[in-house]
Design brief:
By secondary structure, this protein is an alpha+beta fold. It has helices spanning about 5-20, 40-45, 80-90; strands at about 25-35, 55-60, 65-75, 95. Strand 2 and strand 3 form a beta hairpin.
């Protein structure tokens, strides 16, 4: 395994532990992302979520260069949250907050 893979797996393990301790599961989780407004990945990011169950909120930056996307959705476990973050990390130009 590459060193970066090891670091990210360690990060996700710590993050999973933090999620497990910080809230009850299943529960509502709030994802926050920032995407360049002209990025084709905004729709790709939204498609990671069940639109019938998610609450989406978008806000343009003052110069309309970036779009912040907030998603509130019921998640069953920390592992489900991490799966979404891992998938979103494959989209170029998507920043996680």
């Amino acid at each position: 395994m590459a060193q970066n893979d090891t670091k990210s797996e360690e990060f996700y393990l710590r993050f999973s532990e933090h999620l497990a301790e910080s809230q009850a599961w299943p529960g509502i989780y709030m994802f926050k992302f920032v995407v360049k407004s002209d990025s084709p990945h905004l729709d790709s990011l939204k498609s990671l979520f069940d639109a019938s169950k998610a609450e989406f909120s978008e806000k343009l930056s003052s110069k309309k260069t970036f779009t912040s996307l907030t998603i509130k959705i019921r998640m069953d476990s920390p592992a489900q949250v991490i799966t979404i973050y891992k998938k979103s990390s494959t989209l170029e130009g998507v920043m996680t907050l």
